Amino acid sequence: MVGMLAGEPYEIVEAADGFEALEKAIQLRPDVVLLDVMLPGLDGFEVCRRVRANLDANSIPIVMVTVLDDRESRLAGLDAGADDFISKPVSRLELRARVRTITRLNRHGRLQSAIDQLAAANQELRTAYDATLEGWVRLLDLRDHETEGHTARVTHHVVELAKRFDVGPADLVHLRRGALLHDIGKLGIPDSVLCKPGPLTPEERAIMEQHPRLAFEMLEPVAFLRPALDIPYCHHERWDGRGYPRGLSGTMIPHAARLFAIVD
Fold first, then answer.
1. Are 4 and 89 a contacting pair, CB within 8 Å?
2. What number of helices (H) and strands (E) belong to the chain?
């Protein structure tokens, strides 16, 4: 059969008996195994069973090649885990076509598996990111008891409001993160100002009003948080231009920050 596949773009590895076939299948994990039923050592059925029992190799496509074409043998092969049968004498054209098709499907399956694994890892990373953000928020709540619980409430309500404005799922992710972090800049405000029980002096008010700029400086270097910066940086801007820190007005204020200001 090796000669029948000459000229095809495959690297072919042969095995002299069932034990060697099993070892190479597990070690190399090829795109397809062409397995003769009548092998010395272990027969093809047993090799197939053991490959299927191996967690690292159990997805390899196995085509059994044999002179046996009776129903019982095929059923035994399928029960052992074979994917297909080719009966001897083997047609060169049929063999090439079968191997080409199975190889293509297997490579596609591996690619899809890799994509799925990457997506799962990406989701785990996003979950870890969001858990980190929520940890920052809890830290701020512990420091600023006056606003404890405020962040969770406004985050929930601004997400619901944004849905009414048909904000898409991807933008909702950034909006939620921005809402969670809207006061994160207060971590840079001294306790004497942040935790003062009475009214702030004009000088203290000027210090407090630096927290949006501090939030920008904290978050802007973090690439995945840049799309969420509108709320932390701009949620104290005002439609009439009398807000801070930049005095933006009207539609110069980002839409997410305007929605958040309503809820806040």
1. no
2. 11, 3
